[in-house]
Hints:
The protein is of the alpha+beta class. The chain is built from twelve helices and eleven strands. Strands 1-7-8-9-10-6-5-4 form an eight-stranded mixed beta sheet, sandwiched between helices. The chain has a three-stranded antiparallel beta sheet with strand order 2-3-11, with no helix packed on it. The protein is rod-shaped and about 130 Å long.
Amino acid sequence: MNQERIGKFISELRKEKNLTQQELANKLGVTDKAISKWENGRCLMDISLLKPLSEVLEVSIVELINGEKIEKDNVYIKSDEVVENTLNYAEDKIKKNKIKIIISVIVSIVLIVSLGFLIYKSILLNKYNAEKPENYKQIISGLTLDKTIKIYKKTINEKDYLTVDDIKIRNDFSKFKKIEKINKMDSTKYVLYDENNKMKSAIFMGKTDTYIDMLASNSLVIMNNKDRGQFNDADMKYFLLRKDINNDLDFFKYVKENYYLENNLFTSIREMRENYAINTYVSIAFPLVSSTTIISGDYTGFIYNLKTNIKEAHIFRNGKSYVFTFMGEEFTKDSYIQDLLSTLEIK
């Protein structure tokens, strides 16, 4: 079927009848725009309109579909051609319609999946959105590894040692009052009071897990909340392995460069959970410090330099972090801490 030829034929017949496009449209119950499209060969009429259109134009349906008048002697031959052409046209239209339907279904599925994905990601963004702390800049500043002090082990007289659990260190605290630990997680405290019974100086000694061990083993309460269940210990250990974080100093460097990472629609679900866990953990676990000093030499660790004239030294040994907190002007000097920790022995 030749759309252009049929359209031209309809136009010629309409003009022979002295009909406008609008008048022909009125007789068929369609719009003049439809008549215009037929005559321009842009589309064909609906099959239900063939008979009424042929009657108005006073031609046979076969002639209408053929796009020209047919002599009576050739009507049967032309009828076969028209039927064949009509069937081919119909088959072609069906194929095109099937393709359109398939494309429409695929597009609809893609849109539905995309919309569902966006909704799901939006829910996750809301769920794994750790509120940015007000002291964000202070935390970052406190993780600045500003300098390194080297501590080398030295031996002292056995009678000069103070023993606390598996810690041996020079006993500079004979005038201090010992405050016993309340539980295994607590520190042993030695406090020096002035004449008014006001604390003048103090040192706390204890043992705890390293930050990365706490991070990977649910040690902090915050990691036991309802959201933590979807980011388990194996996930966190995989995160530490993937980021090549082997100790607390590696973790400090990572946090310094990556805290506070914000999630977005393009962030993977795993990364959303990682960022949420790290941001929440750091906001609670890290103290407010002005800077951090690295300890090297015969010992490995770091010293937190707090703004409140307090220093907290962490020495790594046997997979644990041995923590020494110093309070008081004479005990918070780097030279004193360096000298005292040089006498440290851990069983």
